[in-house]
Structures are given as C-alpha cells and as structure tokens.
C-alpha cells in the first residue's frame, strides 16, 4: 500500500478540498498540520491527521478511514499515539454531498 506524508500547508489544504470535503472533523483536528495518507491519492484507504507540523510517533492522531459505501462515506476514530489504540468509539459520517475532485 502506498503511503504519502503531507507536511505542507498546500498539501493539507488539498486534502481538505478533496478526500475530506464534506467531512465534519472534530474541532481538535479541523486545523490539522500534518497527515499520513494511505493508498492512492485519488481514492485513499485512510488518512491519519496530526495537530502539529512535525509530530512524534507518540502523538495522538485522528484516523479517518474511507468506507465509500452507501450510506457511509467515512468513519474516524481518535488514536493514542503511544499505544496506537483507539481512544473513543467509532463515529460514522454520511457525506453532505459527493463532489468529484475533477
């Protein structure tokens, strides 16, 4: 599986406007500064969002997994970076509207 590190403001804004378009992120992660994208950039499998520009391996992160099967578009779970385990229950989000990146 391909992995891409998005560490610039332009890259993070691109992610917000494409794969995360219409996804209402928890307030703590709305202004994420770093992301690890897993899978193809056009149709990622998942993305881990970090609040800092240079996160440590032990930093907490929000994992967004793209289900892309109706009626659910994605689900997200906050993870404890030290244990890589979920911190709270799964939240599923339906898309506000599917918008093509093209």
Instruction: Work out the strand percent.
Output: 35-45%
Share of helix, binned? under 10%
**What ranges have pLDDT less than 50 throughout 5 or more consecutive residues?**
96-102
Helix segment count? 1
Quick rundown:
By secondary structure, the chain is mainly beta. It has one helix at residues 9-17, and strands at 3-6, 34-39, 44-50, 61-69, 72-80, 85-86, 91-93.
Topology:
Elements: E1 3-6, H1 9-17, E2 34-39, E3 44-50, E4 61-69, E5 72-80, E6 85-86, E7 91-93
Antiparallel strand pairs: 1-2, 2-3, 3-4, 4-5, 5-6, 5-7
Features:
102 residues, mainly beta, disordered C terminus
Overview of this protein structure:
With 102 residues, this protein is mostly beta strands. Helix content is 9%, strand content 39%. Strands 1, 2, 3, 4, 5, 6 and 7 form a seven-stranded antiparallel β-sheet that branches. A hairpin with a 2-residue loop joins strand 4 and strand 5 (72-80). It is globular, with a radius of gyration of 13 Å. Mean pLDDT is 84; it is low at 96-102.
């Amino acid at each position: 599986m391909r992995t891409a590190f998005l560490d610039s403001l332009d890259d993070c804004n691109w992610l917000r406007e494409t794969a995360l378009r219409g996804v209402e992120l928890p307030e703590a992660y709305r202004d994420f500064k770093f992301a690890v994208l897993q899978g193809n950039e056009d149709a990622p499998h998942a993305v881990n969002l970090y609040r800092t520009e240079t996160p440590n391996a032990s930093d907490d992160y929000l994992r967004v997994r793209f289900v892309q099967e109706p009626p659910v578009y994605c689900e997200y779970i906050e993870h404890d970076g030290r244990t890589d385990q979920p911190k709270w229950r799964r939240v599923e989000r339906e898309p506000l509207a599917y918008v093509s990146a093209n």
